[in-house]
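Q: Fold this one first, please.
A: Sequence and structure below.
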Amino acid sequence: MKLSANDYIPKLRNTQIENELARQLRQESEETREKFIDELLTSFQLPVRLAGLDLLKRVLTDKNSLLRWLEMALTQVDISEVKYWLAALTPKLGNKQVRAMARQWHEEDKVSYWLH
């Protein structure tokens, strides 16, 4: 099945649709899931990015892809959104790993503020 984020964007923020989408994504390869979520997280619309973060929490498992998303959150994402990204990634990676990566990228202030 070919999943396209553009097909789901108008339907996102509907719990039933997001639950069904998460079930479908879990049946796909990690690469397919990652591409789908990438389309959501790079959207210009905040509600679409937030839906992407919700799905990221639910369907991605590859540590390398999660670390890549963490790097993006710390180095490219607007500071006002960092808390949402950390809320999605920290349970998957662990507080210690998130703080260590923040130190590595010299972005400790962003993480310390949100992860007391």
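Q: Good. Now the second chain.
A: Here it is, same layout.
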Amino acid sequence: MIVSLLIGAVLMVQDAPDLLPVDAEHGSYECTVKGVFIHEGALVIRCEGAAPGGVQRFSVEREQLRYADIRDAASWALETKRPLGLFYATDASRSPRGCEARNCRHLIGVELR
């Protein structure tokens, strides 16, 4: 079973990618987690490779719902070296504070793979 975490909801479904938004405003990327850290009050996940547009960092603010769940999933992926599915806003203007427009996007959900 695939477990997906969305900010605001926890989903346990078979085909999570079909339920998560992937369109012009939302993207998805399978990340090999290289680092998990806090920067300016936001959790940042750094990937080994880059999503379209050269994006390597994905961030969620501490105040957002499911922050701890996303942090735990990212830490698990880093420790186990398993991929982490990321679902993010493609518009750089939606990115949290401290998230550079050239290489960082607002994270809206994760999928343990």
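Q: Anything worth noting on the second one?
A: Residues 67-80 form the longest helix (14 residues).
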